[in-house]
Design brief:
single chain; little secondary structure
Length: 307
């Protein structure tokens, strides 16, 4: 026969269960295409390979196999979609989608030959904890960019590196890493934002934001190369007392101006230097310091104004 039958056979159509290969559809000579076999469609469980769809000779494409779709658990590789010869692309495999836990690699999406891009793998999405690397997104050959990896998103604690975002070759920029976001305490470096090569700018690091106390360096903001400006560091904002240097604001190279430091704002007493405002180079002016404003008594130098 020059052409195979479009519908070869409907085998074993039982009343109780649709079983043991309903049909082999459209086996063409030139290409293995359009569903070779639907095997073992059982009533109790959708199992043991529902369909091999469109196996073409020129390219391995459009879903090689849907294996073991079970009712109790979505498991053991639902589909290998569009394995093309020229580029490894558009989802090589969805492995082991289980009902109890989303686990063991949901999908490898768009592995392209020219560039390693657009999500290599989503590994081990578990229900109990979002853990062990959700996704490696867009590993490009020319530049290491746009999210290398989201590692170990756990439910109990947001920990161990949520994301390395946009590691570019030309400049170290736009968020190298968000490390160890824990639930109990926001700690151990939330983000290194925008480390640029030409200038150290726009937030080098937010280190150790803890829940009990806002402490140990909230942010280093905008360290520019030409001028030391616009907030070098907010150090140790504690909950019990506003203390130990809230902010170093706008340290400019040409003039020491506009608030060098707010030191040790304590809750019980307004004390020990609220603010050094506007220390200008040409003249010592407009309030050098408000020292030790205590609650019980207005004492010990309220203000040195306009020197």
């Amino acid at each position: 026969m020059t052409l195979t039958l479009t519908f070869m056979c409907g085998l074993y159509l039982e009343k109780e269960r649709l079983a043991h290969a309903i049909c082999i559809l459209s086996l063409e000579t030139e290409r293995l295409a359009h569903a070779i076999c639907i095997l073992s469609l059982e009533t109790e469980r959708l199992a043991n390979a529902i369909c091999i769809l469109s196996l073409e000779t020129e390219r391995l494409a459009h879903a090689i196999c849907i294996l073991s779709l079970e009712t109790e658990r979505l498991a053991h590789a639902i589909c290998i979609l569009s394995l093309e010869t020229e580029r490894l692309a558009h989802a090589i495999c969805i492995l082991s989608l289980e009902t109890e836990r989303l686990a063991h690699a949901i999908c490898i999406l768009s592995l392209e030959t020219e560039r390693l891009a657009h999500a290599i793998c989503i590994l081990s999405l578990e229900t109990e904890r979002l853990a062990h690397a959700i996704c490696i997104l867009s590993l490009e050959t020319e530049r290491l960019a746009h999210a290398i990896c989201i590692l170990s998103l756990e439910t109990e604690r947001l920990a161990h590196a949520i994301c390395i975002l946009s590691l570019e070759t030309e400049r170290l920029a736009h968020a190298i890493c968000i490390l160890s976001l824990e639930t109990e305490r926001l700690a151990h470096a939330i983000c290194i934002l925008s480390l640029e090569t030409e200038r150290l700018a726009h937030a080098i690091c937010i280190l150790s934001l803890e829940t009990e106390r806002l402490a140990h360096a909230i942010c280093i903001l905008s360290l520019e190369t030409e001028r030391l400006a616009h907030a070098i560091c907010i150090l140790s904002l504690e909950t019990e007392r506003l203390a130990h240097a809230i902010c170093i604001l706008s340290l400019e190279t040409e003039r020491l101006a506009h608030a060098i430091c707010i030191l040790s704002l304590e809750t019980e007493r307004l004390a020990h230097a609220i603010c050094i405002l506007s220390l200008e180079t040409e003249r010592l002016a407009h309030a050098i310091c408000i020292l030790s404003l205590e609650t019980e008594r207005l004492a010990h130098a309220i203000c040195i104004l306009s020197m």
